[in-house]
Amino acid sequence: MTRDSTHVNDDSEADEAPSVSDGLGAAARRSGLGAVAPGETPSGTALLRAMGGMRGLVESIVPGLAFLVVYTITRNLVFAVAIPLVFAVLFVLVRVLTRSPFTSALAGVVGLGLSAGLALITGRPEDNFILGFLINGAFLLALVVSMAVRWPLIGVIASLITGEGPGWRAERAKLRVALIATVLWCGLFVVRLGIELPLYFAGNTSALAALKLILGVPLYAGVLWVTWLLMRTAYGRPAKADASRSAGA
Known about the structure:
Elements: H1 2-16, H2 20-30, H3 44-50, H4 53-74, H5 77-97, H6 103-122, H7 130-148, H8 153-162, H9 172-202, H10 205-214, H11 217-235, H12 237-248
């Protein structure tokens, strides 16, 4: 009796245990991207929330801006990489003290620390941007591979946010829009690398830092907005169709 009850409880717990896809979906909905769910009406407020709010924007822009200003004025590599790192650490401390999520801010500190360390080791200020090139290249590769295997990454992310599962690939409209949106994000990373790499090889650090700012948050926000509009054309259809059928009945 006890043993059978134990097995029943184990089976119930196994059934209730979240799958990997459920966990990824929950994480996607909790992230900023959950604010721009496909099918929802686009708004500036939601877009700002998807980018981390005003605090997120400040944390994204200030370190890069500090590098640009300090390096342009002083031409001192140590100051140029140290001051942005100080700002990033302060952002983490503020989040900890205000009991706000600090994972992304902490990741920013790690990234800035690695970039600063590489630049200080080589003595070349432009090497402060190598990590960014690698990250952009990795994202571009992931997007291209996802299209090659017919699982466009933007569609996968959208399905995680909506909790739809893999069934979206069977709907031609959703698959087509996901492919277009994924190509759009490929374009973002191609533009970044295509503009920034020549400046890196030319050793034009100030111009590289300035264009990295321009091609960072502003370009990301624009592509995210267009993606939202694109995905809404496909994910908004079922609701409209259902409404039409209900009205006809």
